[in-house]
Amino acid sequence: MKLPADVPWLNDAGALALCSTLESAGFQALFVGGCVRNAVMGIAASDIDIATDATPDEVQKVCKAAGFKTIPTGIDHGTLTVVIGSEPYEVTTFRNDVTTNGRHAVVAFSTHVVEDARRRDFTMNALYARSDGTLVDPLGGLPDALARRVIFINDAAARIREDYLRILRFFRFSAWYADPVHGFDADALAAIAEHLDGLAQLSAERVGSEMTKLLGAPDPAPAVAVMERVGVLPRLLCGAQARWLAPLIHAESMLDLSPDPMRRLVVLGGEDVAERLRLSKADARKTQLLGELVGTAVGAAELGYRYGLATALDVIALRAALFETPLNKGDAAAATRGSAAKFPVAAHDLMPALHGPALGAKLKELETRWIASGFILTRAQLLG
């Protein structure tokens, strides 16, 4: 099978030059992973990764002779970043796992693509392609990719014991790529249920990164619901519940909101979420603010005025989901109106008659009246 000739990365001048350089030196150069998987599924890909039987030293030597810059970004694991023009390309030597402990692997370089494929996680990720678009399918994963089935390579339990993060990757890939008609692979779920204790070995940063990617999928609700049923979600976020995620996604679609992992984290709930997922300060502040505003009586227009349209719409969607109420589209219009409103009174309008705390109190009183009027009262009316 050949990929369509119009696949963008098959026409990327830098990538083709890199492949040609390695092949001219007698080495294999195969596109691998996400770019190939996505091409098979007809999905755009952002990253271009290349696998080769050349060792890192050989890659460096060949690229230097061709005038390409190399950066040893992960040389201990066989990965170099090759910069051609201003574009970076990751090149990784075929590898074979020697030992694994659930978090780290000791790898040996290999000259066989089959060995490299066997150490990957899912069959849909063990696809390679030559520079002319010819698919290389060492493990027979193409049917799974075409059918959008997320299946562990060989024994699911063995793959999980090699790296417990694969439990979360299973749900993330299911959310992004699986056809819901097929459901979730029973062998994978059984293996996951047997290895829940391994999740404790994962760092908060790794868990947070995977959860953020998972919740950024168009509709992660089915995957998160299964995570809860098999016991993964409560291990990650004590007290979190999946029940309101699907209603939130419905509300998002009604408001034409893009997927937002932080908004979705708020609807899941749970204890110490920012710490357990090691959220950035900005994301932690956002989830805290949204969580606080959902339970207030602040109306849509005032939300838009005080916090901006994006935050107001987030709160409107969250309230509809958490309170299980129909979405009022008029709220979106009110939030939009509020976000554009400008309070017509300034401090100097009340001076010198008022100053200090009295001035602040009067401004607050007038602003409250103005908001209650639907932003209609004019400066003259407020000061009259």
UniProtKB/TrEMBL annotation:
Domain tRNA nucleotidyltransferase/poly(A) polymerase RNA and SrmB- binding: 185-237
GO process terms (BP): tRNA processing
Protein name: CCA-adding enzyme
Keyword Protein transport: no
GO MF annotations in UniProt: CCA tRNA nucleotidyltransferase activity; metal ion binding; nucleotide binding; tRNA binding
Organism: Pseudosulfitobacter pseudonitzschiae
Keywords associated with the record: Magnesium, Metal-binding, Nucleotide-binding, Nucleotidyltransferase, RNA-binding, Transferase, tRNA processing
Gene field: cca
Pfam family name, one: PolyA_pol
Enzyme Commission identifier(s): 2.7.7.72
Entry cofactors: Mg(2+)
Gene3D superfamilies, per database record: Beta Polymerase, domain 2, cca-adding enzyme, domain 2
Organism domain of life: Bacteria
Family: Belongs to the tRNA nucleotidyltransferase/poly(A) polymerase family.
Lineage: Bacteria, Pseudomonadati, Pseudomonadota, Alphaproteobacteria, Rhodobacterales
